[in-house]
Design goal:
Radius of gyration: 15 Å
Oligomer: single chain
Shape: globular
Strand order of the largest sheet: 2-5-12-7-8-10-9
Order of helices and strands: HEHEEEEEEEEEEHEE
Helix content: under 10%
Largest sheet: 7 strands, mixed
């Protein structure tokens, strides 16, 4: 639905500043979900801490729901340009299709939010575990061109496996939007299945932003 994109990408109005060369967006083993806030768009995707693969992670279970967790930050993407995280899914979303509003659901996605001078100028990169979109491809969100969907993983072939990801968000922003980002205002995770009325389960590991590879 339009709201879950447009509202999520405006959540960075108030933020906190990071100074170190690596900013830990999440440290679930030591901090739990401290600093993370919930936003519901339809029902509640259940996010809970659990132990998996000898570490503390967040498990997300969506049953026809759409809600996410976000953490406000204030970071210069020209410095904190390398985003790293790990994730796992039980499977992709049944009837999920990145090109349609009816199929705009994802077992796992990580948002990077870039606030604009005005709220309607806010943009977001959605790093998604795609249902059909080929790995490495990117398209505008079915509801708004201010959110670009980039397929970091695709399809069910690697479901059930923990995968470590890294993205150069500055390079991605320049390629996807054709201009320069102002700042990073929030990081969010979301597992949602409201448009397809289906179910999905995912796990999210720690997320960091770094100044160097």
């Amino acid at each position: 639905m339009t709201g879950k994109i447009l509202l999520m990408i405006t959540l960075a109005a108030f933020s906190v500043t990071a100074q170190a060369s690596e900013y830990r967006v999440s440290a679930f083993s030591s901090e739990g979900l401290g600093g993370w806030e919930a936003k519901s768009f339809k029902g509640t995707t259940v996010y809970s801490l659990m132990r998996d693969d000898d570490r503390t992670v967040v498990k997300a279970v969506s049953k026809g729901t759409a809600s996410g967790l976000f953490k406000k930050v204030k970071l210069d993407p020209k410095n904190f340009r390398y985003l790293r995280w790990s994730w796992k899914i039980a499977g992709t979303v049944k009837n999920g299709d990145e090109t349609t509003k009816a199929g705009d659901d994802y077992a796992a996605r990580v948002y990077v939010v870039f606030p604009g001078r005005f709220f309607w100028q806010t943009k977001a990169i959605n790093y998604i575990w795609a249902n059909r979109l080929a790995r490495g491809e990117a398209i505008p969100n079915a509801f708004t061109s201010h959110a670009m969907m980039l397929a970091v993983e695709s399809g069910p072939g690697r479901a059930g496996q923990w995968l470590a990801e890294e993205r150069d968000i500055l390079a991605d922003y320049r390629r996807l939007f054709g201009d320069e980002p102002r700042e990073i205002g929030a990081i969010a995770i979301m597992t949602d299945t409201d448009n397809t009325s289906s179910e999905a389960t995912a796990w999210y590991g720690d997320i960091t932003l770094s100044t160097a590879r």
